[in-house]
Amino acid sequence: MTAVPFPRQPSQPPDRNGASDVTPVFALKELVARLNREQHKIQDLLSSLGFALRSFNNLNQFLELIPLMASRVTDADGGALIMFRPNGQVKLERLHCQDNHWGQEIRKALEAAMRQVTTLFAGVPPAEGLTKSPQAIAKLDHQVSRFLGSDIQIFGTAILVRNIERGRLYVFSRDPDYTWTETRQKLVRLVADQTAVAIENDELTVELRKKERLDRELEIGADIQLRLLPRQCPNIEGVELAALCKTASRVGGDYYDFIPADYGQIRKPDSENESGRWSLTIGDVMGKGVPAGLIMTMTRGMLRAEVLNGHSPARILQHLNQVMYADLENSNRFVTLFYSEYDPKTRILSYSNAAHNPPLLWQAETDTIERLDTLGMLIGLDAETEYQDAQVQLSPGDTIIYYTDGFTDAANQHGRRFDEENLTKAFQLACRKYDDPQMILKYLFECVQKFIGADKHNADDMTLVVMRISGENRR
């Protein structure tokens, strides 16, 4: 228990023998009364600080009270709150003095002390300055005491936020009989701790608002990206399609598209059955999140413009790579892309690959799987990369899956990857069981989910497009 000094007694006339009329009982009552006053003072302090923390949305309003409350609760003449800025500056945040004239003298003394300390640490980087140096704090205390003078009874304590000293709270009295008892020091520290809580709450609120703004921007970005992906699969003569993209985060780097290969189809996109050529493409930007999403959006726009030039798949990839190289070479991000064009009249699929996962073709007549691949480097890696053209003749019942590496790289709890071999087996089994591309798509997603765990979320974007040539299976 903190020792409390014996209270001063009111002056009373001595008795006939010269002795005081004060009795031990009277002195004890005075001591109890003083203890009660101290207890009520602490309770009032805590209540006032709690109310201020709950009520003030502005940190400056709360800081305005700190020197005032610290001085009143300790029966001192004034208080000062000095804060340390991230740039290394020392600022007199708030000052309270009962005597305004004396307060001006205190302000000048404190500002002189801060200038002295700032000068001493002028060459020290902010990260190593006042907030990191106990010697600097001690120097500040010494300068404050020196400039205020030896007649001022002063006590200072730290404002600690997340174990970093962010400022000092000083309380002072010019009463020569004033002493800084342990109780008074504890009260000042209590006010300083509440100040630290208020500062931290304010900073957390700022961070929360920034996060909320970022979340809103991500929601907008995700919505824009979702709108850029095909809303539905087109009606292509002799073809059944299904597609789905699952992003690992709100904004992903996977891309797939169905692009009419001539201007006439663009001008009449709502026709029930298109007999013209269609481009089917799938891609993946290295990385995830907003940067990948931005590059994906750029890739989509450039590719759609390039398709209408009527070049072969290899030439389209070559032109796209040359255009995007300048934008991607300094970003350390690249794009894998598989581009194909299907002609419903001939059932020929022409394609070229820029280092993307080769689509898998299930041939209905032979129940075999073929990889559709050509040589070619990543988009954005080398401006002079050459790409190759290839073709495949499709037949009724043939089915192709375009996919991203989110399928093959999906890992289970033991670290094993789903890999292309498992995907190939699952795809072949799905083609034997289902004629509907939507059922095949659903089955493959379920296989990967079962592999990684029903309650797990894949760490990478997953995109799958299923293309089936209409007609009877001739097996």
Automatic annotation (TrEMBL):
User: Which range is the signal sequence, renumbered to this chain?
Assistant: none
Q: What is the top-level taxon of the source organism?
A: Bacteria
- Pfam families in the cross-refs: SpoIIE (PF07228)
Q: Which GO terms describe its molecular function?
A: phosphatase activity
User: Keywords for this entry?
Assistant: Hydrolase
Annotated spans, Disordered: 1-21
- In this chain the GAF domain maps to 58-209
Span of domain PPM-type phosphatase: 236-469
Query: What PANTHER family does the record point to?
Result: STAGE II SPORULATION PROTEIN E, STAGE II SPORULATION PROTEIN E-RELATED
Q: What is this protein called?
A: Guanylate cyclase
| Source organism | Phormidesmis priestleyi ULC007
